[in-house]
Design a protein that fits this description.
It contains seven helices and eleven strands. The protein is α+β, with helices and mostly antiparallel strands. It folds into two domains: 4-131, N-terminal domain of MutM-like DNA repair proteins, CATH 3.20.190; 145-264, Helicase, Ruva Protein, domain 3, CATH 1.10.8.50. A five-stranded mixed beta sheet has the order 2-9-5-4-3, with helices on one face. Strands 1-7-8-6 form a four-stranded antiparallel beta sheet, with helices on one face. β7 and β8 (108-114) form a beta hairpin. It binds zinc ion. Zinc ion (ZN) binds next to loops.
């Protein structure tokens, strides 16, 4: 699933015209959709009626949402498992997975390709109602080491599922959580309230460093359709079961934590509290 660095890369590509067209400034002339459930808010008829004729003003990111502020409201796209945004000429026939297509007035189109159909599209004049359900941005000013430690110290939940809970912290997924925990030498099943301030501060630092490296490398290209990123070449534990830990040489193990596949080094990340 695209996580913060992958969604940020897509937002920058669309904003800066790296895919051949700058999306800010484009007027939406028409929209087509052949999978109604992809339109999460409002109903399809209202979505089409309200959004057609609006101009996209910017492309931003909040958590794992792509955010398109428009002239009267805000379009949001959540890519979920295998979503991607493609830009193509109007006349190019729709690919089998391009379920929602925005036709721009100048002859281009922006296409939400979604192989596994989990992605969702929203239009609202009150995006704060969606943002209010999300925790802070891990690269933003609110997320400080003190904030992190004070929130962790109140939670008995395992650290990995807590870090991936979007209402706690917005944007982390399986890849960057496994990588940050390994770099911080913290076992993924530690209860959040057992972390010392020093451990919380170290983890906070590696969350930010791992995400920043991911953005710099334009995300990770692995099990979803994605162009260009190479953070997969910097993985220390993710998808490296049985391979030696780059820090100590011990074989990386894979376990399930909160039903999610989890990769860690049993030597660098001991389960016992120090
Ligand atoms: Zn190790």
């Amino acid at each position: 699933m695209p996580e913060l660095p992958e969604v940020e890369t897509i937002a920058r590509n669309l904003r800066e015209g790296r895919l051949g067209l700058q999306v800010p400034g484009q007027k939406i002339a028409d929209i087509s959709n052949d999978w109604r459930r992809q339109i999460a808010m409002p109903d399809w008829e209202s979505f089409h009626e309200q959004l057609c004729g609006q101009t996209i003003l910017d492309v931003q990111r909040r958590g794992k949402y792509l955010v398109f502020p428009c002239s009267k409201g805000t379009l949001l796209i959540h890519l979920r498992m295998s979503g991607d945004i493609l830009l193509a000429d109007h006349h190019q026939p729709a690919g089998g997975h391009e379920h929602t297509i925005f036709y721009f007035a100048d002859g281009w189109s922006m296409r939400f390709s979604n192989t596994r159909k989990f992605g969702r599209v929203f239009y609202t004049t009150n995006p704060a109602a969606i943002y209010d359900k999300l925790g802070p941005e891990p690269l933003g000013d609110i997320f400080t080491a003190n904030w992190f430690y004070s929130r962790l110290s109140r939670r008995k939940r395992k650290i990995k599922p807590l870090m991936m809970d979007q209402s706690f912290l917005a944007g982390m997924g399986n890849i960057y959580t496994d990588e940050a925990l390994h770099r911080a030498h913290i076992h993924p099943e530690r209860n959040a309230d057992t972390l010392s301030f020093k451990e919380a501060e170290t983890l906070w630092q590696y969350i930010r460093e791992t995400l920043e490296e991911g953005i710099q490398r334009q995300g990770a290209s692995i099990d979803w359709i994605y162009r260009g990123g190479d953070f997969q070449n910097a993985f220390q534990v993710y998808h490296r079961t049985g391979l030696p830990c780059p820090t100590c040489g011990t074989a990386i193990e894979r376990i399930l934590v909160g039903q999610r596949s989890t990769h860690f080094c049993p030597a660098c990340q001991p389960e016992t509290v120090p």
